[in-house]
């Protein structure tokens, strides 16, 4: 079983920035496609950004131009750099590895 752990969430004012991190257990991180999702209260869990094992990235429209996804295979870590944050970005952010393994999530709260 692959363990996935997110970190880096917190409270930030509108217009601010945060960087989320996601790590996995085991030795196969470099082979995983990795993704970020988010879920606001009372809403579905939505795709935010993804990065393939080879480094190709995709973004939801809401994230384009503001968020940047990256990975460091030597550290078995994926990042989501978020800037120009808005109150509507408030959600629990989840990491998913290999289309199968979820973390527990990290709360991001953006105050107006």
Large-scale geometry? globular
The total beta strand count reads 11
Question: Given the structure, what is the number of helices?
Answer: 0
The structure class reads: mainly beta
How much of the sequence is in beta strands?
Answer: over 45%
Instruction: Return the string of H and E elements.
Output: EEEEEEEEEEE
Average pLDDT figure: 97
Low-pLDDT sequence parts: none
Over the alpha carbons, how many angstroms does the gyration radius reach? 13 Å
**Main beta sheet strand tally, sense and closure:** 7 strands, mixed
Cα distance spanning the termini: 40 Å
- Helix fraction bin: under 10%
Give your account of this protein's structure.
This protein has 112 residues and is mostly beta strands. The mean pLDDT is 97. The chain has strands at 4-7, 10-13, 18-24, 34-39, 45-51, 57-59, 67-72, 77-82, 91-97, 101-102, 106-111. The strands form 2 sheets. Strands 2, 4, 5, 6, 9, 10 and 11 form a 7-stranded mixed β-sheet that branches. Strands 1-3-8-7 form a 4-stranded antiparallel β-sheet, with no helix packed on it. The chain starts with a strand and ends with a strand.
């Amino acid at each position: 079983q692959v363990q996935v752990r997110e970190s880096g969430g917190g409270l930030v004012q509108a217009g601010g920035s945060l960087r989320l991190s996601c790590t996995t257990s085991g030795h196969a991180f470099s082979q995983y496609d990795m993704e970020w999702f988010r879920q606001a209260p009372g809403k579905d869990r939505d795709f935010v950004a993804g990065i393939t094992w080879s480094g190709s990235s995709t973004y939801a429209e809401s994230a384009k131009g503001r968020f940047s996804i990256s990975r460091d295979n030597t550290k078995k870590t994926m990042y989501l750099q978020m800037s120009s944050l808005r109150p509507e970005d408030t959600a629990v952010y989840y990491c998913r590895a290999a289309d199968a393994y979820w973390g527990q999530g990290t709360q991001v709260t953006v105050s107006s």
